[in-house]
Amino acid sequence: MSEEGSPISSPPQPVKPSETEERKLPMLLDIGTKGGASFLSLVLFIVPLIAYNVIVSTTGMDGEDVGRWIGVGFTVLTLIGWSSTYILRVATKDMTYAKQLKEYENAVIAKRLEELEDDEVLALVEEMERDTF
Prior knowledge:
It is built from 4 helices and no strands. It is mainly alpha-helical. The chain is rod-shaped, with a radius of gyration of 27 Å.
């Protein structure tokens, strides 16, 4: 229980993205939205079917062979695409854990800065300015 007048710690508030970080893609093209995920799923379902029909009707190849090769090609391309996005996120440290760790470090630094006296803050600022030049 807390007494009146004592500060009650509240959970951290979610960080709102700045205007520069907001998504600029339309809803159907942004895979981070439900509409984008649904649209992408629909496209990934329809494209192989269209490719199958086009190849079978234009080349006269056997439908089973075409289906097998489209299945293999679709699987390989999807696997390469997904893996490349994962590798890119790891290389740029754009993963949930890395973001949470950075936010935590910033919160700890901000809390420590709050606890410092004004003269200590001024001394730190002066020291940083000396180190910068």
